[in-house]
Amino acid sequence: MGGNFVQETLHQGKKMFSWTFLKNLMLNPAQLPFVACLILVAELILNILVVERVPYTEIDWKAYMQECEGFLNGTLDYSKLRGDTGPLVYPAGFVYIYSILYYITNQGENVRLAQYIFIAIYLLQLVFVLRIYIKTRKVPPYVLIITILTSYRIHSIFVLRLFNDPIAVLLLYVALNFFMESKWSIGSIFYSLGVSVKMNILLYAPALFFFYLINLGMKDTIKQLFICGIIQLALGLPFLIGNPIAYLKGSFDLGRVFDHQWTVNYRFLDVETFENKCFHLTLLAVHILLLVLFMPMCAKYFQSYCRLRYVQKQVQPQIDAKNQQVKGKSKLKKSVKINPSQKEEEILSKEQEDFLRSFESSIAKQSGKGVKKSSKAPKPVEVEPSFYSINYDIVSQLFILPMFIVNFIGVVCARSLHYQFYSWYFHSLPYLLWSNNYSTMVRFFILALIEMCWNTYPSTSFTSALLHVCHVAVLFGVYKKISSELRMASKVE
Asked: Transmembrane region positions (predicted)?
């Protein structure tokens, strides 16, 4: 018995570590749930090592604490909330979150504790990011292992710099997960909370508006916009009462001029051109033009998403009813097998039962003890009933891709990208690259070049130009594939 158990265990172990199993584990997106757990464990270990081994570099943390200290001391006029890096330029949600961190970290002095809090924030974000990849089944697991674990800049942004960008992006990914589950109001709340931490989350707004409109209609779209607005109003109310102009100008300043010193994407421009309003308006025009180009395709994706979700609602009850029927039949069979003696009592007479007992007794005497074990008839192999299911999670591709595209367009047309802005779109890059027809080698090459550009400090004219080339390549590849797929779909229709 023990020997059989050991042999079976070894057999299962060999099967588990066979080349076929490992290959399937790395290449099959359906295996991502298991790989995702490994990624989270590896990231926990890696981030702890980074915090313990790599020196912390002060950039904005102290300024954040100074800005929140003014608020905690009773100052509600946004124009008077300042830090070493200048005036407060983030909405009210930022103030509340970093005020909590101010208390937890002993007025910002316990930086190491703050770093460990940001490890938790990063791991939590990864949970929601990986959940999107698990549902969409778009990207092979090995791609996520390579890209997530090897990015120096992303780990630096989260646990060595303590920027507010990761918190805003975390809330955004939470919202996307709720939207995928058709939990519109909760998704809207988290989306608005993300905007309240940093304004870059508004880059998703054009796609989200069309998503509301196509899936919910005008009435419910207004309801969701109201939810988003009321969250902003509630969070900003103390500051709006104190000095509304200062709050709106400080937290949602669309005309803010960035410091050329920190730019990653426009190092090749001189300071005068970089700060020129005509240049900013040109980028805005390009942004709008790209949205006009992509939005009809995104709308078609949303329409298809809406139709398939409708089909799911119609079909799923029938599938559930069929499975319930199968389950009921299975229970009935088991109940029949539990009491076979009842049948025997009805069929066999007392004389027949006595004959069988005496026959079994004589066989046992002739065979001896050793045969008693084998005298029992082998148990019949029970076949588990097969249940019906359709994987509708993959439909989420029709929602996620447009959302990632619209955000990416905003990044491509940004007036300036600072190093922490990499977190705005890093985790969507594998999805975008695996949504085009480039070869795997080209995709990894583009990912490597983008990572190199973000890791070059200070940025150079070459790396800035190269970053634009990579961005355009990604955008063009996605556009080409989507347009060809939609043309093919129109022919089928």
From this structure: 32-51, 88-104, 116-134, 154-176, 188-213, 225-247, 279-299, 398-419, 462-479
The residue whose two tokens read 């790396």 is: 463
Other CB atoms within 10 A of residue 236 CB: 21
Q: What is the DSSP letter of 86?
A: E
> How far, rounded to the nearest angstrom, does the alpha carbon of residue 135 sit from its chain's CA centroid?
9
Q: Which two tokens mark 492?
A: 């089928």
CB 413 within 8 A of CB 287: yes
pLDDT digits 0-9 by tens, 356-410:
455 455 545 544 444 444 444 444 444 455 555 556 678 899 999 999 999 999 9
Q: Among 80-89, 273-282, 343-352, name the one with the lowest average pLDDT.
A: 343-352
Q: Look up tokens 């270990």; give the residue.
A: 45
User: Residue with structure tokens 């129109």?
Assistant: 490
DSSP string, 396-443: GHHHHHHHHHHHHHHHHT-S---GGGGGGTGGGHHHHHTTS---HHHH
How far is Cα 152 from Cα 457, in angstroms, rounded to an integer?
13
Q: What is the helix (H) or strand (E) element at residue 87, kind and residue range? A: strand 86-87
Report the alpha-carbon distance of residue 72 to residue 82 in Å, rounded. 13
Average pLDDT value for the chain? 86
Nearest to 430 by CA among 199, 118, 179, 150: 150
Give the H/E segment covering residue 83: strand 82-83
Q: Which residues pair with 82 in a beta bridge?
A: 87
- Tokens representing 127 are 């949970």
Q: How far apart are CA 239 and CA 71, in angstroms?
A: 10
Q: What is the residue whose two structure tokens read 């158990």?
A: 5
Is cis: bond before 378, omega within 30 of 0?
no
- ∠ CA 356-362-367, nearest 5°, is 125
Q: Single out the residue of 264, 300, 269 nearest to residue 412, CA to CA.
A: 264
Quickly list H helices, 73-164.
92-104, 111-136, 141-150, 152-155
Give, as one character, the DSSP assignment of residue 372: T
At residue 83, φ and ψ (nearest 5 deg) are -135, -175
What amino acid is encoded at 37 in this protein?
C
Contact assessment for residue 84 and residue 59, using Cβ atoms and an 8 Å cutoff: no
Q: Are 154 and 48 in contact, with CB atoms under 8 Å apart? A: no
Report the C-alpha gap between 278 and 298 in whole angstroms.
29
**CA-CA distance, 71 to 348, in Å (whole number)?**
89
Peptide bond into 317 cis (omega under 30): no
